[in-house]
Write a structure and sequence with these properties.
mainly beta, Immunoglobulin-like, 2 domains, 6-stranded mixed sheet, disulfide bond
Amino acid sequence: FIFYAGICSALKLTVPSHTIHGIEGQPLHLTVDYNFNATASEIQIIWLFEKSQSNPKYLLGSVNQRVVPDLEYQHKFTLIPPNASLRINPLRISDEGNYIVKVNVRGNGTIAASQKIQVAVDVPVTKPTVHTEPSSGVVEYVGNITLKCTVDRGTRVAYQWMKNGKRLYAGPNYTFS
């Protein structure tokens, strides 16, 4: 991971700087670290989730490591002490969006910092199915044959046709659509 640090009044919050890709059905860790050069009587951590064009939803929060989850999500999201990392388990397509972490440190005064982490959910590609038209095949040098390849599920699917281990390209004998 490449890390980006946001500094706000001597409170440093470190989060991954690029989109985090998780796999549907698997757990995902959002690694967040914080440090500050002040004496603290209370440390509060808040996690929110936002999809585009919707208000952020509260997931969980903690004060001095005592976690207060939103009861709707209490079995899905876990705060991993001593830092502010979040565990999502299991990851679903609906979990794609922005996760916002906010840390408040109270000492003489209160210092705060927040960061946003973008999460993308990948669905594993299922085994491809190939259909032949006509199903009887063709006689050599007579007519055309169409091969159709499909997958039932998967994100960011790319198709590539091979013959004898070598990639096929469009030309007089092959057309792709």
